[in-house]
Specification:
With 368 residues, this protein is an alpha/beta fold. It contains 15 helices and eleven strands. It is found in: Cell membrane.
């Protein structure tokens, strides 16, 4: 390992000639950090590798496409103590982003809550449709800062120590997507945790605009439902569910919904009953999105208040709670003597941008 590199940025690419240059320029502009850039290419037929090499990046030619496969290969060839995984269309929001993120990660480690921490940034969308569908994209941006379950995705970047990456076992390679969600799930099973870092990355609206905003968002919901109850047959239809960006087209959502329903109802009665119960639990854990969506509609500013979400969280957590600040969110856990309903106590709630009527931890994260 080259001790001169503090951090390695690993970027999976496939037919990204028109996008990769802007990201590489943004990484060259980063201040106060010694970094290398590793582009893990999945077999691009355009000029992606050449653009990357001309910009000074190391290019790793991966035998097959798939973000998990590519990022694992790139990490293996990298030399930094820290690893930052970025998508080709996610660009640093300012030249101090990476330096400040590393400072925050070290602070999180010193807290001693967990030895294994993965940091992610908030998102700012840009591109076609951003202004016309401003409230929709604002909702996604606000959600990206919450640090709640199922709100952390690879396009937000994933920053971690190499030891953490290796302890988890790298990214799963079975599918061309969901490697981010499965990595986080494995991390949390080991006692690790996620944190929202200061700053943001700019990312493209291109998939939403090409596939259709409503259809893509609804399909994302089906993907999360299928992942929650193990519908691998549905997820295996990668071309229909989550095609590579360069092959993406208008989604046939009704066909996907039919396929999902068939996969859900396949098997014996006990299996189907278990899946239905799993979906009920998933729905309960995500009901906070209803008041949150109303909050964003009423107060669309980037750091607008979330009174309805806060009220919901207090209701779910039970009477009274202990909250601590973390990233852009507030983690709340019930301290009620009279227990909340069982389902409400299954998961501690996390609220972003809001206030929790309780005590907060004295230690503060470094200001970025």
């Amino acid at each position: 390992m080259n001790e001169t590199y503090e951090l390695s940025v690993v970027i999976p690419t496939l037919e990204e000639e028109g996008r990769i240059g802007r990201l590489l320029e943004g990484l060259r502009a980063q201040r106060g950090v010694r970094l290398e850039v590793v582009v893990a290419d999945g077999g691009s037929g355009d000029g992606t590798p050449e653009v990357a090499r001309k910009a000074g990046a190391r290019v790793v030619e991966v035998g097959r496409a798939g973000r998990g496969v590519q990022m694992n290969a790139g990490a293996k060839e990298s030399e930094g103590k820290w690893l930052l995984f970025l998508h080709a269309d996610s660009v640093p929001g300012d030249p101090d982003l990476v330096r400040d993120a590393l400072e925050r990660m070290r602070w999180e480690e010193q807290r001693g809550v967990s030895e294994r921490v993965v940091g992610h940034f908030s998102l700012r969308f840009e591109g076609k449709g951003r202004e016309e569908r401003g409230r929709f994209y604002r909702l996604l941006e606000r959600k990206s800062a919450l640090n709640r379950a199922l709100t952390t995705h690879g396009d937000q970047g994933m920053l971690m120590r190499r030891e953490t990456f290796e302890a988890v076992g790298g990214f799963e390679e079975g599918l061309g997507f969901l490697e981010d969600q499965r990595f986080v799930a494995a991390l949390e099973r080991m006692g690790g945790r996620r944190v929202t870092l200061g700053g943001y990355v700019r990312t493209s609206t291109r998939r939403f605009e090409v596939e259709g905003v409503r259809a893509r968002y609804a399909t994302m919901t089906l993907i999360m439902m299928a992942e929650a109850v193990g519908l691998e047959a549905f997820l295996a239809d990668e071309e229909g569910v989550y095609a590579p960006q360069h092959r993406a087209g208008r989604l046939r959502f009704l066909r996907l919904a039919k396929t999902f329903g068939e996969a859900l109802l396949a098997g014996d009665r006990e299996t189907i009953r278990g899946r239905i119960e799993g979906l009920k639990t998933l729905g309960w854990h995500n009901l906070w999105q209803v008041p949150f969506g109303i909050d964003v509609w009423l107060w669309p500013a980037p750091h607008g208040p979330t009174p309805l979400t806060d009220a919901w969280t207090r209701c779910v957590a039970g009477e009274g709670s202990v909250c601590r600040e973390g990233g852009a969110g507030v983690e709340c856990a019930s301290k009620s003597r009279s227990p909340a309903p069982l389902k409400a106590r299954r998961r501690a709630a996390t609220v972003g941008y809001g206030r929790c009527s309780s005590e907060t931890a004295e230690r503060k994260a470094p200001t970025m």
